Amino acid sequence: MGQESVSLDAGAAGAGPKTRIVVERPAPGLARGKFAWPPWGIGVVGGLIIAVAIGYFIVRWRRRR
Hints:
This protein has one domain (2-27, 36-64). Helix content is 40%, strand content 22%. It is built from one helix and two strands, in the order E-E-H. The chain has one helix at residues 39-64; strands at residues 2-8, 19-25. Strands 1-2 form a two-stranded antiparallel sheet. It is rod-shaped, with a radius of gyration of 25 Å. The N and C termini lie far apart (55 Å).
């Protein structure tokens, strides 16, 4: 996971210590979590699901005729 540092100035220079906040952000992209997949892998699985669904409806439509 990446970290991004953000510094906030409380006003005038030298008025006191700056407040530092560390913001935790996940890695960029679609795949996040324990088993991260690359974007092309998600696209392939999605395409296969769509192709199977289209094939199923074509077979159903042809059997009705």
